[in-house]
């Protein structure tokens, strides 16, 4: 019975998230609570929902083979087939006959006998004859697209920019799961204390690669740890922790975080300032800026002020040559965080990239005058795309001869990253397959005069 509830709940969530909706932890958490799923069932439930969304294009390809008119399927039947195919193809722990039995029983309850028969027929056919062999797709871009469930335009774009081999690695990494990365609040706890506490609570954890504040948790629902209840830690990917690490932060500095919500990096910067100086944080709307204020408050940080405002208009708020450090963690296409947010790869269009690159350049153009001479500006995105990253920086530098890539940037990178395949003289592109982190770009500019 519990397995029936689990799969029925997974189907509910898939229908709610649907083809256009964003993957939402909130919906997942609400469903887990409502159905009182056990810890073990929670893991399988999350795996089914995540995996089905991550593999959607592959599962649609399978469906075409077994259903004559897949577009005519009712939405819930389509998702029921997708999630059943997902379990049959990618999860070893559940036998096919159990998956089919559950799917048919769900179809009977939700629909009628006719639909249950259809579901039974399709799944048994797949069980008997196996899934189509993706390796037989001749066109190599199309093959990667179907095998790893990435839209064709994106696969082609990455092949053009990074080559075939790297694209395969990026796409394959995007359909895996990565361990949870958390940041400890150094003002309240040491990393050793946090790791000991986690061990006591039964979590396996290790120090992370690029930040003395980072911990990687291999398994378990970390949100249930006391460390969260007591606001001693916050969730943050390792690559995104690199931002504050690379800003050369010392006490009493005045720092601008131009695009700051929900406040992951603003609070990290504030921790690095040890509650001194000031982090002046903006985000487009007041509501989002409030999230930064709340996060800072929860973490006991008193040196953060957050306001809602278009950061392209900040010259009306602050004089030129004012900030010691500036962070522009720009709005971007998010192609580096597909692993955790699979909806991004289905919803983004290639034309979005050009619109975003224009905004990114406007942010740099309008904000850079506010930096003090010899001050540094860190530009980052969570995307894997040359136009939004190296392209924007190169265009900016051409029209701003008073700026240069900080000559110390590469020297100050953690040793591991100095060997990174994405390091160029315009900055560091971290790919999601390089270190089991999000894909990310960062570079540091210095104002010469
Ligand atoms: C990558 S997210 C920032 C993440 C944040 N730095 C953190 O670490 O939690 C980019 C943010 O830029 C904001 N944004 C977009 N356009 C903006 C603009 N013109 N001015 C200020 N913020 C903007 C978005 O609302 C979004 O919250």
Automatic annotation (TrEMBL):
Please indicate if the UniProt record lists Methyltransferase as a keyword. Answer: yes
Q: Which InterPro entries match?
A: MeTrfase_RsmB-F_NOP2_cat, MeTrfase_RsmB-F_NOP2_dom, NusB-like_sf, NusB_RsmB_TIM44, RCMT, rRNA_ssu_MeTfrase_B, RsmB-like_ferredoxin, RsmB/NOL1/NOP2-like_CS
Please name the PROSITE patterns in this protein's record: NOL1_NOP2_SUN, SAM_MT_RSMB_NOP
A Pfam family this protein belongs to? Answer: Methyltr_RsmB-F
Q: Does the keyword Lipoprotein apply?
A: no
Q: Which reaction does it catalyse?
A: cytidine(967) in 16S rRNA + S-adenosyl-L-methionine = 5-methylcytidine(967) in 16S rRNA + S-adenosyl-L-homocysteine + H(+)
Q: What GO terms describe the biological role, i.e. biological process, of this protein?
A: regulation of DNA-templated transcription
Q: Which family does it belong to?
A: Belongs to the class I-like SAM-binding methyltransferase superfamily. RsmB/NOP family.
**Which purpose does this protein serve, as stated in its record?**
Specifically methylates the cytosine at position 967 (m5C967) of 16S rRNA.
Q: What is this protein called?
A: 16S rRNA (cytosine(967)-C(5))-methyltransferase
- What organism is the protein native to? Natronobacillus azotifigens
